[in-house]
Amino acid sequence: MAYLRKRLLHLIPVFFLVTFASFVLVNVLPGDVVDTILADDEAANDPELRRQIMVDLGLDKPLLVRYAVWLGELVQGDLGRSYITGKKISDLLVQRIPVTVQLMSMSLVFALLAAVPLGILCAYKSNRSIDRWISGAAFGIVATPPFVTSILFVWVFAVVLDLLPAAGHAPMFMGLWANMKYFILPMLAIGLSEVPIFLRVLRVDMITTLQEDYIALARAKGLSTSYILFRHALRPSLFTLITVLGLQVGRLISGLVIVENIFALPGIGKLLIDAIDARDVLVVQAIVTFSAVAYVAINLIVDILYAVLDPRVGRRRETV
Questions:
Q1: Considering the chain, what is the average pLDDT of its residues?
Q2: pTM here?
Q3: C-alpha torsion sign, points 263, 268, 271, 276
Q4: Intra-chain end-to-end CA distance of the chain, in Å
Q5: Which residues does 69 contact at the CB level (< 8 Å), separation at least 6?
Q6: Is the sign of the CA dihedral 293, 295, 299, 305 positive or negative?
Q7: What pLDDT was estimated at residue 154?
Q8: What is the pLDDT of residues 103-142, one digit of tens each?
Q9: Calpha distance 107→243 (Å, rounded)
Q10: Which of 8, 115, 196, 273 has the smallest CB count inside 10 Å?
Q11: What's the 3-state SS for the chain?
């Protein structure tokens, strides 16, 4: 518990650093939200109208004051309203988060289902032809950005074969397949980029584990290869994989931003790009805050899983 409390305390400086940095970066971009509001207005060049809008939105105040005001409202549970639509930002997030969570969950599950058996196979057949072929393919996949894979999948499966939709979204109440078919291509694009990373990490740890004395003893007892691999070797080889799984969330979030826009999925990533284009600072702040907190929380869950897999880890960390 002492270790978990310490990790929670570490969240405070991370939160302030991330939110303030994003607040500054969005505000130093060329143009502002007033340009978006007056984009098609004949009065766009009216300085008095611009000044009035800035006063109404509180944009006439210094940057630090605006950040402090936003922070004070956040503590009270108020994320504010979008400068562009006037909608409550909390409502926007509630609408978009399920799409992003579904895509991320499906991508991670697909990546693990593919990487774990392949990693075990590569470790068992280490330095043989099948290991070299799988490792070579993995390097080729990891060198391909998700947006390139996304475009390739759209061309093959949506344009040429006409098997899956190229873009769009259907809510779950319209039916499971109606919903899932829009997630298959983005799931493959994101999940495939994670498979090589998980595979290589598990392969290295499994090779080390298979050289341990207790594995040799299990073989001497006549236990089957599959029993040794899955019951004796897999569990102690998962520590690094679990760590990487938590760290990859940050990479996944950035990948989701691009992929969601390619496939027109109404998730957090698409909302973020739209908000940046419109200089909708409060929406950007809310998404960055959510992403930062989610990232730290997932890594905290990873630490808890460490203690579950090996209680000695939790006891050692509490003494540090």
A1: 83
A2: 0.82
A3: negative
A4: 12
A5: 58, 61
A6: positive
A7: 92
A8: 999 999 999 999 999 999 999 988 899 989 998 898 888 8
A9: 17
A10: 8
A11: CHHHHHHHHHHHHHHHHHHHHHHHHHHHCCCCHHHHHCCCCCCCCCHHHHHHHHHHHCCCCCHHHHHHHHHHHHHCCCCCECCCCCCEHHHHHHHHHHHHHHHHHHHHHHHHHHHHHHHHHHHHCCCCHHHHHHHHHHHHHHCCCHHHHHHHHHHHHHHHCCCCCCCCCCCHHHCHHHHHCCCHHHHHHHHHHHHHHHHHHHHHHHHHHCCCHHHHHHHHCCCCHHHHHHHHHCHHHCHHHHHHHHHHHHHHHHHHHHHHHHCCCCCHHHHHHHHHHCCCHHHHHHHHHHHHHHHHHHHHHHHHHHHHHCHHHHHHHHHC
Residue position matching structure tokens 């930002």: 89
CB 271 within 8 A of CB 96: yes
Alpha carbon distance 266, 260 (integer Å): 7
Q: Which residue has the tokens 């869950």?
A: 301
Alpha carbons 158 and 151: distance in angstroms, whole number: 10
